[in-house]
Amino acid sequence: MIGTATVALGGLPLMDDADHRPAPRPVEPPDAVATLDLVLKARGGEQDACDELFARYEARLRRWAHGRLPPAARGALETQDLVQETLVRVFRQLPSFDPRHPRAFRDYVWTTLWNAIRDIARKYKRRGPTGPLDTDVAANGPSPLEEAMGREAFARYDAAMDRLRPEDREAIVARVEMGLSHVEVAAALGKSSAAAAHMAVSRALMRLAEEMAHDRKPRR
Amino acid sequence: MTASPDAEDPRLLSVASTIARGHPVDWSTVPTDPETTTILEELRQIEGVCQASSPVPDAWGPFEITGELGHGSYGTVYSAMDHDLGLEIALKVIRPGRDGEDHDIRRALNEARLLAQINHANVVRVYSAERIGREVGIAMELVRGRTLHWLVRAHGPFSASETILIGQELCRAVAAVHGARLLHGDIKANNVMRAHGGRTVLMDFGAGHDLKSSPERAHRRAAGTPIYLAPEVLAGAPRTTASDIYSLGILLFHLATGTYPVNGHTRDDIERQHEAHAPRRLLRDVRPDLPEAFIRVVERASAERPEDRYQTAGELETALHRMSQDDVVPDPVPTPLRRWALPLAAALVMAAGAGYHWWPSSPGAVPAPTSAAAVTPPPPAVGADSYDVEAAFYRHQGGKAVRLQSGARIAPGDELSFEIQSSVPTYVYVVNEDDRGEAYLLFPLPGQQLANPLPPGARHAIPGVVNGERINWQVSSAGGREHFVVFASPEPPSPAFERMFQSLPQPTPGAAPAPQPLPGELATALRGVGGLKKAPARPAGELMSHAFTAPLPDTRETARGVWVRQLTLENPGK
Description:
Chain A is mostly helical. Chain A has helices at 32-43, 47-68, 77-92, 102-127, 144-149, 151-163, 166-177, 182-189, 194-216. Chain A is built from 9 helices and no strands. Chain B is of the alpha+beta class. Chain B has 15 helices and 24 strands.
């Protein structure tokens, strides 16, 4: 077997596999209209449009998955392939969309990706990345998100996220879990400016906190 | 339910707004009352998440940050605007850990200054370097394009002529780096971009070292990617120009094959293989179609002993140049293999409602866009619909692949693989059945890099790369005979058929699948199709593979429609 995972050493600069891979274009953020345009081009058979579509989502999805996967799954090429697999599946199952209603397309993609990412995380939690024989402690260790909050709080966070309105959840995933800049969040959510995106994220975080608190009360 | 948006508490919103910015909240100044205590407690949890996930800041020093390009243990690379220059740049922000020492910061700055002296089309431009607090920011040219790693993964290996051209550009880049008294230290497919427009650009001097720095410092930490690291560096010797040449050799091997000459999962694995002088994967085994001269150049560049390698990047470039001059390099990969893009384009066509039919399908079969292989653009028009196929099974022993003939003996633990090449895009299915009638689907499997339809003109190794690892099948138990049935066709199977294949159990690494008999419909549906024995409905207990009598040939065959061949191996055990 060929191992292609990089070994991350501490300290000074060692680029890992995530670097400079399909670089999202910061000046042309993936707003729904532009993405839908790519979908239409791809439908017409333009290879570059297909590549671009994958590249655009892959980088973001990888970061998102990273936060929700246990340490053993991170950094490995495996993670990237999971992400690739997920994207292939999502795009393959795309129903047709009316270009006049980019919102429907955006919501569909977000919701599908949300479900897909959580499936991946659940799968890893259950059995580790390479099956029962290779399961070690790290495979079932906490994901970065879980580690940051603690197991119990993360469970509340995750459950509350699931109950939020899709647009609030998208705002939080984009800013917090994907770590996008406010410029990018604006494009991804169809907001008019970075300031509007920031406001949307702030409101969404507040509703998330309320939703989490709601979950906690009965138990205490 | 939650409070309605109208009932927003401005104090809560202000806290949430600070968190959204990624700034720390000064909790001592936040007023609390019984109403909001629990919500504030939750916001505090959320603040922790925001800080852990380090969302992209709005600015770093004078630069306005527009997005994130990548991150790793060293820090992060952002895309950013340099408003002074009116230029969009890549900004690498290095954050030494808490235990990071001052000399690490000084070294990063020093390296950036040396890099800034290099002005070469094939090396990423460094504009400036700056220190703010405990962070160092390096402003670099923003290269738009794809890494070679991405291209190999998405489109398959490069042709020999393309590999030679890229190799020459990289040699010039590395010569420029060495000329500036620097070593790169981490040359790999992930650190080379092919810019839009075709320019090859060497990036990332993350693990680079000043040639002038003391040897002890240079090998204090052999950072880099193990599979690309020269054996002597893994063993603890300092980096040299010859270790950069080794990495270049490995990179060329990877571009031409999608694999690596050395097997190994971890740094220790790879080190052990080098120490034991374990047999390497040979370029001529993986790509027998490559010109001998090219194979020799790659072998010499990646030679185990540094003294056997080319001594300078210029020497390697000359060798590559000579080959491109000789113009003897055939181009065995006719078109870029758009392995990813094809299924997507096709999926979208299907989403638009296009239908397709082939292979006798069950009545009422509905196109199911969920299947892994039931998508394709229309196959290219090939004269009289005939196509050429060549295929073989191999057993792997001590780094060598031995071709298996029908009746060959195998034993538990043996590693097997299959190779197929066709003149048109081909849908391939490989099924294994033992004497008890238990069957597995061996290809295609989820997670496999290779997907149907297999691109034409290249030899495909199956199972190939699965979840990022190159794998073989392994014989897991002894039991009479093993039958392998290969289905190939230029056209996708009907969804019903596809579902049938998908319903077979699939081997997964480290876990034995629950076997089940091949469905009887398979025989009925395929009866009379290319290469099948015309058999009556399958009597109970008869093996599926008995329906397919045409043996796997030793040579290329011209086929039409569905091509089905089988190979039987003896697996008697001790």
